[in-house]
Amino acid sequence: MTDPGRTEPEFETEAGALVRPYVITRGRDLLDDNEFTLITLVTTATDERQRPQRLSPEEQQVLEMCSSGYLSVAEIAAHSQLPLGVVKVLLSSLAEGGYLITRAQVPPARIAHTTLLQEVLDGLRALAV
Description:
129 residues, mainly alpha
């Protein structure tokens, strides 16, 4: 029996929440050498006009989000409202297909030696005099 206050779009919203992650990822799993961390940056590698139509709606949504510039994996998961693991699987699949370019996080900078910093400071002070 249907509730007279409910409309069809609400039913579609409720049904969308029932889709299991393995359906979205088509049963794929992440490889052990996972390249995607929360702060890995992702953008599209191809022009939108060259995008094939055989991608899933979720993959197309991810590509559309990434087409305007670099987004982090965490941002993609938040905007798509998909679980992080599902997003990582989709990104991995799209990267393997050549649709995405990833940019890993910048490694931490090496700490400079205090003696070198002191010599630079002394040199600057000598120039100011």
